[in-house]
TrEMBL record:
This is Ribosomal protein L11 methyltransferase. It holds the Pfam family PrmA. It comes from the Bacteria. InterPro entries: Ribosomal_L11_MeTrfase_PrmA, Ribosomal_PrmA_MeTrfase, SAM-dependent_MTases_sf. GO terms for biological process: methylation. One of its GO terms (molecular function) is protein-lysine N-methyltransferase activity. GO terms for cellular component: cytosol; ribosome. The gene is prmA. S-adenosyl-L-methionine binds at T145, G166, D188, N230. Keywords: Cytoplasm, Methyltransferase, Ribonucleoprotein, Ribosomal protein, S-adenosyl-L-methionine, Transferase. HAMAP family: Methyltr_PrmA (MF_00735). The keyword Membrane does not apply. The keyword Cytoplasm applies.
Length: 293
């Protein structure tokens, strides 16, 4: 099927409303792109992050009268004489196949591989987590997830319990279980993350050892030998008292989703309770680990 798209330069204040309107007038999809190449950082589950200067890109059937679309946008004041926009034809491709071809098995640490289900496992005797990209964050491609996976691979998890705070796709909890953890608990604020984690756990044969809770439903006095939280610096700082209480005596903590420039801010929130190790950095992101003091 042939497509045509309109790219409109907008602002973060108008982009969401414009997106809703574009869908109302026939857009089959609407995406936001940073028009100034600002790094796109990972959102909280369920959160839509926009930028100060945002391009709104809407996809329509190629038969659509795009001049009429422009007129409707002008009528609703989403476009004016100073607005910049561009209409262009989109090459027809098998987008699903192209996307699948670009997702490959990835190794983390010595033993752990994350593999899409449609590719052959590179090392059958390794610890292989089968995980397909989905709606929840966490496939291993982002540096923060990679840092956490490598940390888990470095631990002796045999017989240990783990809490994945902000579990997303469940990738960290599932990896820990396949690396030898006795049981794991995933916690998230997004019901889609709970669903994705459950499906991925079933695909990997570990669903019977993984409990999943929405944040507001998690049991009181919950603790584990290992706690990992790959979210964002702000929540990690604000939730430090809650996250710290999840770690058992002599337990360990791993935090990521943190820009290197934010490391001190997060470290300061945990240094009173944990003996912290040197910060591990990768591509402007970092991981903070420590043992309960």
């Amino acid at each position: 099927m042939a497509w045509v798209q309109i790219r409109i330069n907008s602002t973060d204040k108008k982009a969401e409303q414009m997106s809703d309107f574009l869908e109302e007038i026939g857009a089959v999809s609407v995406t936001f792109m940073d028009s100034q190449d600002t790094p796109i950082f990972e959102p909280l589950p369920g959160e839509t992050r926009l930028w100060g200067n945002t391009d709104v890109v809407a996809l329509f059937d190629a038969e659509t009268d795009m001049q009429q679309i422009v007129q409707l946008l002008q009528k609703e004041t989403y476009l004016d004489e100073h607005s910049a926009y561009k209409i262009e034809q989109i090459e027809d491709k098998d987008w699903e196949r192209e996307w699948m071809d670009n997702f490959h098995p990835m190794q983390f640490g010595r033993r752990l591989w994350i593999c899409p289900s449609w590719r052959e496992v590179p090392e059958p005797d390794a610890v292989n987590v089968m995980l397909d990209p989905g709606l929840a964050f966490g496939t291993g491609t982002h540096p923060t997830t990679a840092l956490c996976l490598e940390w888990l691979d470095s631990l002796d998890l045999q017989g240990k319990t783990l809490i994945d705070f902000g579990c997303g796709s469940g990738i960290l909890a599932i990896a820990a279980l396949k690396l030898g953890a006795k049981s794991a608990i995933g916690i998230d604020i997004d019901p889609q993350a709970i669903l994705a984690s459950r499906n991925n756990a079933e695909q990997n044969g570990v669903a019977d050892r993984l409990q999943l809770f929405l944040s507001q439903d998690k049991p009181t006095n919950l603790q584990a030998d290992v706690v990992v939280a790959n979210i964002l610096a702000g929540p990690l700082k604000e939730l430090a008292p809650i996250i710290s209480q999840l770690v058992k005596p002599n337990g360990v903590l791993g935090l990521s989703g943190i820009l290197s420039t934010q490391a001190k801010l997060v470290c300061d929130a945990y240094v009173g309770s944990f003996i912290l190790e040197p910060v591990e950095e990768r591509e402007e992101w970092c991981r903070i680990t420590g043992k309960l003091s």
